[in-house]
Amino acid sequence: MKTLSFKKILVLFIVVFSILYSLPTFVNTVPTWLTSMNAQKMNLGLDLKGGVHFLMEVDLDEVVSGKFKKFSNDIRSQLRKDKIRYNNFNNNLSEINIEFNDSSSYEAAEDLIKNSYQETFELTRTGNKMKVIISSKSLDDIRIAAIKQNTTTLRNRVNELGVAEPIVQQSGKTRIVVELPGIKDTTRAKEIIGATATLEFKMVDEDSDPYATDNISINSKLYYDDSGQPVLLKRNVILTGENVVDANSNLDRNGRAAVNITLDGPGAKRFANITDDNIGKLMAVLFIESKSEQRIVNGVSKRITKKYEKIISLATIQERLSKSFQITGLDSTKEARDLALYLRAGSMAAPMYIVEERTIGPSLGAENIEKGKISVIIGLLLVLMFMVYYYRVFGLFANTALILNILIIVSVMSLIPGATLTLPGIAGIVLTVGMAVDANVLIFERIKEEVANGSTPLASIELGYKKAFSTILDANITTLIASIILFIFGTGPIKGFAVTLSIGVMSSMFTAIVVTRILADLTYENNLHKKTNKINI
Amino acid sequence: MRTININFDFMKWHKNAIYVSSLLIFLSLFSLFTKGLNYGVDFKGGTIIEIGFQKDAPIEDIRGFLKENNYAKSSVQYFGSNKDILIRIPNIITADEATLSNTLVADLNNNYDFSLKRVEYVGAQVGEELRDQGIMAALIALFLIMIYIALRFEYRFSVGAILALLHDVFLIIGIFSITQIEFNLSVFAAILAVIGYSLNDTIVVFDRIRENFKSAVLENVDTTMIMNESINQTLSRTLITSLTTLLVLISLIIFGGEILFGFAFALIAGVIVGTYSSVYIASSTLLLMNISVKDVVIEIDDDKP
Lengths: 537, 305
Prior knowledge:
The complex is a heterodimer of chains A (537) and B (305).
Chain A: H1 2-26, H2 32-35, E1 43-44, H3 46-49, E2 51-58, H4 60-81, E3 86-91, E4 96-100, H5 103-117, E5 121-126, E6 129-134, H6 136-160, E7 167-171, E8 175-181, H7 186-194, E9 198-204, E10 220-224, E11 230-240, E12 244-251, E13 257-263, H8 265-277, E14 282-297, E15 300-316, E16 324-328, H9 333-345, E17 352-360, H10 362-415, E18 420-421, H11 423-452, H12 457-489, H13 492-529
Parallel strand pairs in A: 1-18
Antiparallel strand pairs in A: 2-8, 2-17, 3-4, 4-6, 5-6, 7-8, 9-11, 9-14, 10-11, 12-13, 13-16, 14-15
Chain B: H1 14-34, H2 41-44, E1 46-52, H3 59-68, E2 75-79, E3 81-89, H4 100-111, E4 115-122, H5 124-152, H6 155-179, H7 185-215, H8 223-255, H9 261-279, H10 281-288, H11 293-303
């Protein structure tokens, strides 16, 4: 009897617990003492409350090739600076091949590269030829850093959208998930999360003739300004968006769109030095945007990142500029506002593009909740009626267990942080309702068999529960295996289905075996005192 | 006492059942290879846009509008009711797919008054990945279940269970191929749930067979007879559970809305096919593999130290 009373206390505890913690989901106002116990509404998925889900692919190849180009330029200029002579320097975006004149130049270059870059590169020697490739560890480092930076920047941008409880997190090695509940303007959202706009400040090359296109210094590059005039800009970048710590859009004295920029310490120092040295000379502000496009190359669809560069401002340096200053020349106040936002949020390390979008309008979310509710209620009623019709008193036991089972699923779902109820999740609850009675059906059929074999009522109950137990266990464990696999491999809403199904399977074993047993014992112990030796099943 | 008391000679028909099932599987495979599956955007990639109108949707006008505006490959259908329509657009490489829905919705908004209910865009690569992941998940689930059953029962039982599961999966996929109902992620989830459900049934029958084998150790009874007896003993449970599950699924297919239709349909098909397969396919396999009382007895002896 002692073990049974422990079970009774446990069951009583679970009943009270699941009622309390599922209460906030079912009623609108709950007492404050309940809320203070961390009881809250179930988290709803985007398909129930409306919102957008984006999956962004980060173009890491682009980052790697960009980094490689930079490394290659650095190595070349260092070789020149140290006067190490080479015959041939060739960079094909995945490896650099350098041919040296003699063995001593090779060794000097080897020392130089190893000292300046440590483990970044792997060098292979063939005679006096050197093959330089990025080591796989530094490749990983570059990729990890890039996706981390993109995630942070994206999070900053999303925060500017003013959405409640947005989610921005890395997914797999190359992707970022963005979830924006309740957002209406998805065009704007796409614009903001997808854009890669940034700024670069460069000096104008005033020594060369921009019209002599065939005679451009290798240190300059040709651009065209708004009016189509050619402008030569020095390749050397004075300042990039990465040095910006704050940016705000407003209007300048003449009512034109402008962006106020505040620089970080090192940026301000460099900017002050350079502007000081170049007073009276022309400086350009370049607006740079990367766009990813799909192209068919030789019959295969490929992603290509294209860089759009635009000179937004071309002005003579009047004075020494430092920590904060203003730039103008933007097309509209909207462009100024967006640019300020992108600069504030930080730069993207790599271009990104959307590979999956799921938008649910708020009306559909509410509709889905309504439909889910109705199908749970009707399904539940049908099963409850059938069980009472077929198993009479024992049907009532099973029904009590079934309702408790639903309360347990709801309360556990609202307690697990990060667990969200989705439409397929509701379907999982509906399915659990149908399948949860299975354990009771197994037990009750056994009891019937025992009664038919002539056992006494109490003995029949005892044997029925005992014999059905291992079958119930085997049957539920296999369902659990299937739903756990579904949880691991599924995405979004499907995960929600796996969650409710797994919780339902586990709690149904408890309610169907333990709870109904207590109810049966309570009922028939009393009946036996009255010398009834029939059970109503 | 309400009992279902059928004493049916199930095993007498087990050869016929194998013929019937083989034929059905052949038909499923034939349809799968000729017609294929009507993959949803989840697996195929593409864009779907669901919009709702206050009154009946001007579906013909919208079809015309899309044709005029170079969305020629798109298709437009009513979705659930005459007020809602669903536009499907295949992935058009070279266009900027991800913003296609915004452009189209903005265009439509200039001409019609509706509310945007749902947009789903899946890039071709993601679609492929979801498909591969799905196949992978199903295989891993089958493999783990097979190991579990082999550990709990005997290897022949696990072969029987897996054949029954494969039978169910092929038939459901076959039904989706023949009816061309859209095959999407939630249908896939339903198939995994069917694997769990059908296995439930199979295990209940197997458990009884094992139990009856054990108690038949001393008597010299016929294997087929024990199987028949086991199936008959568990039949009422099998039917009742199938019935309660069907009850909730019918509620889901009627009231759950268009989005869950495929899901509920797959499960209903699965429950019916799964009930049949656990009676016939699983047990028939045991018979074909010449399992007998002796095998289980030896196993019990081995278990004893």
